[in-house]
Write a structure and sequence with these properties.
rod-shaped; mainly alpha; 0% strand; 3 helices; 156 residues; 2 domains
Amino acid sequence: MIIFRRVHVCALILGLIGVIALVALVSGALASAAFASAAGAQPVDGQPPLPSVLSPWLGLFAMAISLGGTIYAWMTSRSKVNAEHLRSVDVELAEHGRAIQAIEGELKHIPAKDDVTELKIAMAEIKGSVAVFNEGMGTLSRTVRRIEEFLMKEGK
């Protein structure tokens, strides 16, 4: 975050330097042109004096630096928004990670497919054993009833 702010500030400073250089160049070129015309300077070999030759190129260079710095500052200003969004995504991802870990911890205690199959087989065996036990209890119940009836008849 601090790096983004520093880069953004540096780009803005670079843009300001470009604007200042452009203003200085334009005012310097105007001043040198005024000075040259006042002094009666003549072009050497048919070429204008040096400040008037470099002035358009230096102005263009200063404007390019200014424009580049401004565009860079504009493009990196979104990095702050992106950084905040990434921070919120990181927090959400961490929450999801904790939730997944909790679910995985609970899944370790849930029986697997093979365990459920074994339980089904064991329950089927228990059902069969209970059915046999119920049948045996029915037989025992009838026997006890007959003994009770015999004792009731003989005890009169």
